[in-house]
Design goal:
Length: 259
Amino acid sequence: MTPQPHGFTRKQLLRAALVAAPAPLLLAAVPAASSVPLHPTPMCDDGDDETPPQIEGPYFKPNSPLRTAIATGLPGTALTVSGYVFGTACQPIAGALLDFWQADTNGAYDNVGFRLRGHQFTDATGAYRLTTIVPGLYPGRTRHIHVKVQAPNRPILTTQLYFPGEPRNSTDTLYDPRLLMTVRPGQASFDFVLDVPGVPPTTPPSTPPSTPGGTWAPGVAYAVGAQVTYGGVAYRCLQAHTSMTGWEPPNVPALWQRS
Ligand SMILES: [Fe+2]
């Protein structure tokens, strides 16, 4: 990595800028102390710290619902997990798929339904946000959240996220401190770094890319089978969803198929 002035790496600076971007809005609405962003973790060190993989374990199920909130209505301690998905050049990755699954507050998985499962896509700035509960413990494991992360048209990273200060972290053989989230009451943060080459950004993306034209638009509730065009290409909707910037058809093959 190449330290910047004051010891920051380029990606630390980038993340700080991304987190700081909405600050004027926050400051207008809440006391300053509440707007302090979580300390970024792990640091993106310009190409040498891809997020390590972990085993999938026995409880993954495909076809989770598209949603950013899981464990809705279940007992437990509310938790928001947020962060960014970066490539190895520190570039934010828009439209990256994140598929989360975890145990309930008693350490049990929902292997029949999907109450503790959900997938989402990063927005135009590479950001994601999961609303859930703190997972419980089950025999043999420390506290953790499972996740699969995939940049568009790239291999899947399967890994797990851990909580600091857990007594079982020292005895769980799967535990990896590189996968520790930064946690404070009710909030956790973690930035993923995927094996995706790219060009280091010089400035954080503050505005979405210009629309290349077509009938697709953000904020529209598309049904399965809906037809749109984007950038001169026709697409068919595979899964009902409300569109948003960052979910343009070329970015999210799980939602749109070329037709
Ligand atoms: Fe697990």
